[in-house]
Amino acid sequence: MVKEMTKENPIKILGISTAYRGKYECAKEDPISLELLRISLKEAKKYGAKIKLINLRELKIHPCKECYSTCPAQCRFNEELNMCDCYPRKSPRIFLEDGKNFSLEDAYNKLDKNTFLKKIQDKHFYDEGDDMWIVYQAMREADGIIFSSFTSFYSRPALMQIMLSRLCALDGGVEELWGDGKNLNNSIRYAKDSSKLYKQRLYGKYTAFINVSKEGDSVSPDLMKACTMMGMRIIPASVCYGVCWYIDKTHRKDKISLLKDKYTLNLAKNIGKKLFDEIKHSDRKYGFYSAIV
Q1: Report field, pTM of the whole predicted structure over 0.85
Q2: Quick count: other Cβ atoms within 10 Å of Cβ 106?
Q3: Which residue from 71, 73, 56 is spatially nearest to 19, judged by alpha carbons?
Q4: Which of 25, 199, 243, 270 is 20 to 30 A removed from 258 (C-alpha atoms)?
Q5: CA 51 to centroid of chain Cα atoms
């Protein structure tokens, strides 16, 4: 049964920009891939989708600690908090030797200056928090996701790789063991129990890709493999690829030239429209319980 789109239940499409460059950084301009992503999202909105854009350069996301490699059940995810238990705090906290902890504001007001400065510079007593929960929540709420990237020295951009590694928590993170202090024995018992299943929370969601490069698109094929392994659906004509040629040695005309290229613009618009169409005619049911992740 197809789930109807209503004002209370709109089709939600998420765009994720993975480039760090920006007009207020040393590059002095936003990435072309971000501009193409905006075009795709605008097209989806035109057909009735509720859109959201997340720019990873604006978030503080820490790398995956790879606890899954010790035991799959060591990776835990809390659906209420939208957090993995490797990074269980959304905002910065300062800890004391007795276990008490404070927000930065409270710590600044309650601790003497020397203690405050000492704690904030010690990784054992200062947790700066983590913003990946924003991505987790948006992905879980979305029907479709557009990954916008560029080819960075023939590979994925750094922000994209950090985010992708953290998706391990959505693709099988165990909620039942949340809050046990990463007790490895509990994880081993869970993993040995053949009746236990791992929830692939992105399973069935639709996805598409945008890539801009002078080096060829080696990113989208890798992304397709990762998304397929998580059970995501790749739409037909799923890639918008923009080529920046080495014509202008200063690169200052790259954006102007590419954003005038009708073929590239049509690819970007098609992603927005096709993503909306595929979702509209689907059952919009996501998630799958698997014995192996």
Answers
A1: yes
A2: 12
A3: 56
A4: 25
A5: 15
What Å distances lie between residue 255 and 92, 212, 214, 270, CA to CA?
Answer: 38, 10, 12, 20
Distance CA 160, CA 149 (A): 8
Which residue from 147, 155, 107 is spatially nearest to 128, judged by alpha carbons? 107
Question: How far does the chain reach from its first CA to its final CA, in angstroms?
Answer: 28
Distance CA 223, CA 238 (A): 11
Other Cβ atoms less than 10 A from the Cβ of 104: the count is 16
**153-to-57, 213, 217, 271 alpha-carbon distances in Å:** 19, 10, 11, 26
Q: What is the pLDDT of residue 227?
A: 97
Question: Per the structure block, which two tokens stand in for 100?
Answer: 């008490």
What's the CA gap between 165 and 161, in Å, rounded? 6
The position carrying tokens 């705090």 is 89
Q: Which amino acid is at 210?
A: I
Task: Match 């922000």 to its residue by tokens.
Answer: 159
What's the token pair of residue 191? Answer: 């993993």
Q: Are strands 12-17 and 144-150 parallel, antiparallel or unpaired?
A: parallel
Q: DSSP assignment, residue 219?
A: H
SS3 category, 46: helix
Domains and CATH numbers, the chain: 12-84+136-290 (3.40.50.360), 91-128 (no CATH)
Given a cut of 90, whether residue 8 has pLDDT beyond it is no
Q: What is the pLDDT of residues 204-236, one digit of tens each?
A: 999 999 999 998 899 999 999 999 999 999 999
* Residue 1 in this model has a pLDDT that exceeds 70: no
Residue 267 clears pLDDT 80, i.e. is over it:
yes
